[in-house]
Write a structure and sequence with these properties.
With 763 residues, the protein is mainly alpha-helical. It has 35 helices and seven strands. Among the domains are: 136 residues, Rossmann fold (3-Layer(aba) Sandwich); 116 residues, no CATH class. It is globular and about 95 Å long. The protein starts with 39 loop residues before the first helix and ends with a helix.
C-alpha cells in the first residue's frame, strides 16, 4: 500500500528521482543475433514514416520477419528519442482485457486508475518510440492502447507489428512482404546462403554454391517457401545433414503432400505451417518432447526453468535447446545471463496444437511450478538478498500472468494462490499489472465488495460474505489478494474502495497469518483519512500478526505505520518508541530504508540536517534494489524539507523532478502530497498566484481532505495568499485551480516551476 507521507513530505535526494519511466535506464531491444538481409527499402520507408507519423503499423504474414525488422529499427532509431525505445512483446498476452495494464507495466507506469487508461496517458508524454510487437491476436485491445498513446501525448510514437492492420485513425501502414526470389542476387537467395554458411562453417559436399546443382536446388527451396525468411532459415538449418538437392526434394515432397489435402488458409500461412511441421517431423523423440515443453511457456525462459518443467538435468536440457536453436525452432537471447530461450509465436502455436503443449496436465504442471518459484522469490524478497528476489519475480511476471490466465479457467484456487504470492512484490513496487490483476481476479470470483452505498461498512461486508469463499480458495490467499486489490485502489486515490477490500480481506482471514496483509492496508488508509488512533491500533495488530509468523517485513511495516501516525499527531516520542522495537535480525534493504524514512519523519523540522541524511540513505537503499516506491516517497520528504528549511531556489528543480516522477507513474496519492508541499515553496518564493491556484486544486472537494499539521500548513498558506492578493483576487485564483484535476494541476505547477527556474538562471 502507499506508505504514510506526513505533513512535511516532499521529494528529491541529491540525485533526484529517475524522471519519466525508462529514462536514466534507457531500454533498448537487443540486436538481432543474425544479420538482416534484403530489408533496406523497408528500413528506409519505415524510418521516413516514423519521422512524421505518430503511429506506424508493419503488417504481413507470420514468419515474414516483422519482429526482426522492428528490432533492427529500434536499434537504429534509439538515439533519436530521449527516452529511448521501449519494446512491448504482446505475443505473451492471451487475454485482450489485460493488454492496457500489461503495456502500462512494460513501459514502467506503476500506478493507474481502474482500467490503466490513465497510466497510458502518462506514458503518452514520454519522448520515446514504443514498439507493440505481435498485435494480431489482441488487435482490438492493441489498437485501443496505440490510440491512447498517440492521441493523449505529444512526443511518443508507436510502431506496431501485426498480421493485420490496427484500423485506427492516423495509422500509417507499411507491408512487410516475403523476400524477392527471382534471380541469383535475390534477397531470398542471399539469406539462404548466409544461413547455410552458418549451419556449415566448414566446407562439406553440397553445403555451398559449388555447383549448378546446388544453385538450382537453392532456387527450388526459396521458391517453394515463397520467400518467407523463417521458412528459409529452417530449411537452411538442415543443410548440414543432407545435400541441397536432397533437401529440395524432401521439402518438395513434404509440402506437396500437405498442400494436396489442406485447402484452408492463405497460401503463405499454409506454407509456413507446413514448413514448421516438416522441420518438426525430422526431430527425434527427445527433441520433440523439449519443443512441447517450450510450448508451455509464454515468454523467454532460462534453461533452469525449462529443465525443471521437462524433468531433466540442466546440461541435458541445454543440449536439447541448443540443438533446437540450430534448427531455427527455438530462439536464444545470449545477451542475458543466463541466456533466455523462447519460441516464435507460429512455432508455439504449432507446439500447442500438434505436440500437446496445451495439454491440461502440462499446463497445470507449469502453473504449479511458477507458483512455487514465485513463493521462493517472495521469501528472498524479504531478506538482505532482496535484489535477487526482485530480479527473479520480474523474470517470472510473464509466466505468472499466463499461469493465472489458464488457472482462472481451469483451476481458480491456483490463480488466487499465484496472485497472493505476488502481493509483496506488487505492493512494494507499485507494479500496475499484478495490482490490476488482483482487482479483476477478486471481481471474477465474487470476492469484490459490492458497489454503491457505503462499501466500507462492516455490516454490509459481513452480510455479503454469507455465501462463503469459492470452492478450494483458501482464506489466506483470498485475504492477501484482496489486500493487493486494496493497494491498487490506494494508488488510484480510491480510498473508500481500498478500505472495503482491506476490511473484507481482514474478515476472511480471521486468525490466519495472512491477516497481516489487509491489516497493513487498513493502517495505511486510516492514516490517509486522518483516523490516527485507528491507524495506530491496526499498526500494532499488524506487528503482533507479523511476530506470530516471524515476518520481519510485515513487522517493520507495522512499526513504521505506528511511528508515522504518531508523527502526524505530533507525538514524536511515541513514534521513536515504536521504531526502537524494530527486529534486530538481518533485514532487506527496503526495510532498512523504510526505517530510515520513518526516523526522518519524526525529526522533520527539529533536525533538518539529520533528517536529510536519513532520507538520502533511504533513497540509496531503495535505488539499490530497484524500489521506486520507497525512493519516490523519500525524495518527496527530502524536497519538502529543503523547501521549508533550506534555500527555496535550490528546491525548485527537485520539486519538478519529483512531480514528473509521480506523474509518469500516475500515483495520484503521492502527487497530491507533493503538490500540497509545493504550496509552501511558492509561499517562500513569494509567488501568491501559483500558490492560490494550487491551493484550489489540492483542497477541492474532488480530492481527499487534508488534516493535522498538513491542514494547518495549508491554512497558513491560504491566509498568506489572501493578504498578498486581496480576498477577491485570491478567491478567483483558488476557484480556477479547483476546476483542475490532480494531473492538470501538476502540469500547471511544472509550467510555473519552469518559469521560476528561467528567472533564477536569468537573474
Amino acid at each position: 500500500p502507499e506508505r504514510v507521507e506526513p505533513t512535511g513530505s516532499g521529494p528529491a535526494g541529491p540525485a533526484g528521482p529517475a524522471g519519466p519511466a525508462g529514462s536514466g535506464r534507457r531500454r533498448r531491444p537487443r540486436r538481432p543475433v543474425t544479420s538482416l538481409l534484403g530489408r533496406e527499402a523497408d528500413t528506409a520507408a519505415v524510418c521516413d514514416l516514423l519521422a512524421s507519423a505518430r503511429l506506424v503499423t508493419m503488417f504481413g504474414p507470420g514468419g515474414v520477419g516483422k519482429t526482426r525488422l522492428a528490432l533492427y529499427l529500434a536499434d537504429r532509431l534509439a538515439d533519436r528519442f530521449p527516452h529511448g525505445v521501449l519494446m512491448v512483446e504482446l505475443a505473451t498476452v492471451a487475454d485482450p482485457t489485460a493488454v492496457p495494464a500489461f503495456v502500462a507495466d512494460a513501459l514502467g507506469m506503476r500506478g493507474a486508475d481502474g482500467d490503466a487508461g490513465a497510466a497510458l496517458e502518462a506514458a503518452a508524454e514520454l519522448d520515446a518510440l514504443v514498439i507493440l510487437d505481435n498485435c494480431e491476436h489482441v488487435v482490438a485491445a492493441a489498437a485501443a492502447v496505440a490510440s491512447a498513446l498517440v492521441e493523449n501525448g505529444r512526443g511518443v510514437r508507436v510502431l506496431a507489428t501485426s498480421r493485420e492492420l490496427l484500423g485506427v485513425d492516423g495509422e500509417h501502414c507499411w507491408p512487410v512482404r516475403p523476400l524477392r526470389v527471382d534471380g541469383p542476387d535475390a534477397p531470398a537467395h542471399a539469406l539462404f546462403w548466409d544461413r547455410v554458411r552458418a549451419a556449415c562453417p566448414a566446407p562439406v559436399p553440397g553445403a555451398g554454391p559449388a555447383s549448378d546443382g546446388d544453385l538450382e536446388a537453392a532456387d527450388r527451396i526459396v521458391r517453394r517457401l515463397d520467400g518467407l525468411p523463417l521458412g528459409i532459415e529452417m530449411a537452411a538449418a538442415r543443410s548440414g545433414t543432407m545435400s541441397l538437392p536432397e533437401l529440395a526434394d524432401r521439402l518438395e515432397d513434404h509440402l506437396g503432400l500437405l498442400r494436396d489435402v489442406r485447402r484452408v488458409g492463405t497460401p503463405r500461412h499454409r506454407t509456413l505451417a507446413d514448413v514448421v511441421g516438416w522441420s518438426v517431423s525430422l526431430l527425434d523423440a527427445p527433441h520433440r518432447a523439449m519443443l512441447r515443453t517450450m510450448g508451455a511457456f509464454a515468454g523467454p525462459v532460462s534453461p533452469v526453468d525449462v529443465a525443471a518443467l521437462a524433468g531433466l538435468p540442466e546440461p541435458e536440457a541445454l543440449d536439447l535447446l541448443d540443438a533446437l536453436v540450430a534448427r531455427s525452432l527455438v530462439v536464444v537471447d545470449p545477451s542475458r545471463v543466463p541466456a533466455r530461450y523462447s519460441l516464435l509465436e507460429i512455432i508455439r502455436e504449432y507446439a500447442r496444437r500438434q505436440l500437446g503443449a496445451s495439454d491440461a496436465v502440462l499446463r497445470q504442471e507449469h502453473a504449479r511450478y511458477i507458483l512455487a518459484e514465485v513463493r521462493a522469490a517472495d521469501a528472498v524478497l524479504r531478506t538482505p538478498r532482496e535484489a535477487a528476489g526482485h530480479s527473479r519475480i520480474t523474470d517470472l511476471m510473464v509466466e505468472a500472468r499466463a499461469a493465472q490466465t489458464w488457472a482462472l479457467r481451469e483451476d481458480p484456487p491456483l490463480a488466487v494462490e499465484i496472485a497472493a504470492g505476488m502481493h509483496v512484490f506488487a505492493m512494494t513496487r507499485l507494479r500496475v499489472e499484478p495490482l490490476h490483476t488482483a482487482v479483476e481476479l477478486v471481481r471474477s470470483l465474487g470476492l469484490h465488495p459490492p458497489p454503491g452505498g457505503e462499501p466500507h461498512r462492516l455490516a454490509d461486508l459481513v452480510s455479503d460474505l454469507a455465501a462463503g469463499l469459492p470452492p478450494g480458495v483458501t482464506a489466506g490467499a483470498a485475504a492477501t489478494t484482496l489486500a493487493t486489490a486494496a493497494c491498487w485502489y490506494v494508488s488510484a486515490g480510491e480510498l473508500e474502495l481500498a478500505v472495503a477490500c482491506a476490511q473484507r480481506g481482514r474478515l476472511i482471514a480471521g486468525d490466519a497469518p495472512e491477516r497481516r496483509f489487509p491489516l497493513e492496508l487498513l493502517s495505511d488508509t486510516a492514516s490517509y483519512q486522518g483516523r490516527i488512533g485507528e491507524a495506530v491500533d491496526h499498526g500494532w495488530e499488524l506487528v503482533a500478526a507479523a511476530r506470530s509468523c516471524a515476518d520481519p517485513h510485515a513487522e517493520v511495516a507495522g512499526l513504521l505505520n505506528v511511528a508515522i501516525a504518531h508523527a502526524y499527531a505530533g507525538h514524536a516520542e511515541d513514534g521513536r518508541a515504536a521504531l526502537s522495537q524494530a527486529p534486530a535480525g538481518p533485514l532487506a534493504p527496503s526495510e532498512l530504508g523504510w526505517l530510515a524514512y520513518g526516523e526522518a519523519e519524526l525529526i522533520l523540522d527539529r533536525d533538518p540536517d539529520r533528517c536529510l541524511r536519513l532520507l538520502d540513505r533511504a533513497v540509496a537503499l531503495a535505488d539499490s534494489v530497484d524500489n521506486p516506491y520507497l525512493g519516490g516517497v523519500a525524495r518527496v520528504s527530502a524536497v519538502s524539507v529543503r523547501a521549508r528549511c533550506g534555500d527555496p531556489r535550490q528546491a525548485v528543480e527537485a520539486f519538478a523532478q519529483v512531480l514528473r516522477h509521480w506523474r509518469d507513474q500516475y500515483a495520484l496519492t503521492h502527487l497530491l502530497t507533493t503538490l500540497r508541499n509545493l504550496v509552501v515553496l511558492f509561499q517562500r518564493l513569494g509567488r501568491p498566484r501559483p500558490a492560490a491556484r494550487l491551493l484550489g486544486a489540492v483542497t477541492s472537494q474532488a480530492v481527499k481532505p487534508s488534516y493535522g499539521a498538513e491542514a494547518a500548513m495549508l491554512a497558513g498558506a491560504d491566509s498568506w495568499v489572501d493578504d498578498a492578493l486581496g480576498f477577491a483576487a485570491a478567491t478567483a485564483e483558488r476557484a480556477a485551480g479547483a476546476t483542475r484535476t490532480v494531473i492538470a494541476a501538476t502540469e500547471t505547477a511544472l509550467d510555473d516551476l519552469a518559469d521560476i527556474t528561467a528567472e533564477i538562471r536569468g537573474g
